[in-house]
Amino acid sequence: MIPILTCVIEALSPEGCARLGHAFERAVRRTGFSVEAQTSGTTLILAGEDELELEAVAERLAEAEDIHYGEPKVSYRETIRKSAEAEGKYIRQTGGSGNFGHCWLRIEPNEPGKGYEFVNEIKGGVVPKEYIKPIDQGIQGALELGILAGFPIVDVRAILFDGSYHEVDSNEMAFKFAGSIAFKEAARKASPVLLEPVMAVEVTVPEEFMGTIIGDINSRRGRIEGMEHVSGSQVIKAMVPLKEMFGYVNDIRSSTQGRASYSMQFARYEEAPRMIADEIIGRAQGK
Question: Which pTM does this prediction carry?
Answer without folding.
Answer: 0.88
